[in-house]
Amino acid sequence: MSTVLLSVGDASGDVVASDFVRELRALRPGTHFLGMGGMEMTRAGVELVVDQRDVAVSGLVELLPDLPRIVGAWRRMMVALRANRPDLVVLVDSSGFNLPFARRAKGLGIPTLYYVAPQVWGWRTGRIRKIARRVDRLAVIFPFEPAVYAGTDVAVEFVGHPLVERLAESREKLDRVSARRALSLPAEAPVVALLPGSRRAEIRHMLPLQLEVARRIHARDPRIHFALPRAASVSAEMLEAGIRSAALPSLLPLSVVEHRAHEVLCAADVALCKPGTGTLESALLGCPLVVAARTNRLTSALVRRLVRVDSLAMPNLITGESVVPEFYQQDADPERIADALLGLLAGPERARQIEGFAAVQEALSRGGAARRAAEIASEMIVARLPA
Question: Whose CA is closest to 184, among 269, 273, 256?
Fold first, then answer.
């Protein structure tokens, strides 16, 4: 029986990894899966060594309060690596944890596949050589990524984006009417989705901003309803505390939805997202969006020195155009963000953005990402078996 150890540090990676596990199990029945992940991986039959909520942090300065949990997670993963000596290590995103972990696996002679590689094309390009030294194969999800690793020895393959098929299924199953019915949202009122993120630091910084934007919008149009999906990696207590501290008007309608972000985006007229996977999910589901973020000032200053791209919104990066508006740090003024969201409820800006989403879909249209990544993993396991 083969053993595969997975290291997955956030909620979006949890979904991606669960699809991968199902595909690899279909190719190699009896494979034992264990590692770090979340609820979706548990449902796929992965034995959790570490709950990813222990490492679901973001930023640089922001991770300091969570350092004891991260150290504990690292130790448990290292014990699992040494004790199980897996046939393959599979890493999904989360470079801060996974690149050091890849080095340990390499030192033990265990082959490593990175599925959903770090965004080295966007910032900290010095990691390209580091990844090439520590990883045996890369299964990348953007068509421009293989060229990033030109001149290195690592084998790189574009496998397609894992969200394309999953979200296509969501759109087929749920239209706006059925999504609202399923979530008990009002049938006729405009709905704004709030997506502050899936990490504790993101909730600390993004949630207050998004709730302040909701307050401004409510003051202009009290008919508008707000829907906020809670990621599995964020505790209900933390989210409730953040909402309480915002002291929102009692008549502001806000629905907190458990773990159903895709349904919320299907139901919404427009979304307010932090940078990250949510921006791509919104675009692929056809929900117009605005991207906004605030973070610790020191983190922001460090990131500005490291970032090598002009945009942090995935639809803009993929198309090379300003498909969605972006507001960061001092520019993330709640009144301006409210203006942009209200402008997307109807009219030419909404139509222009939806037209831009077609270009995003076309660029990522190759399907079968989980299946192809699983095929690569199977090839790596077979290559390790005795002749």
Answer: 256
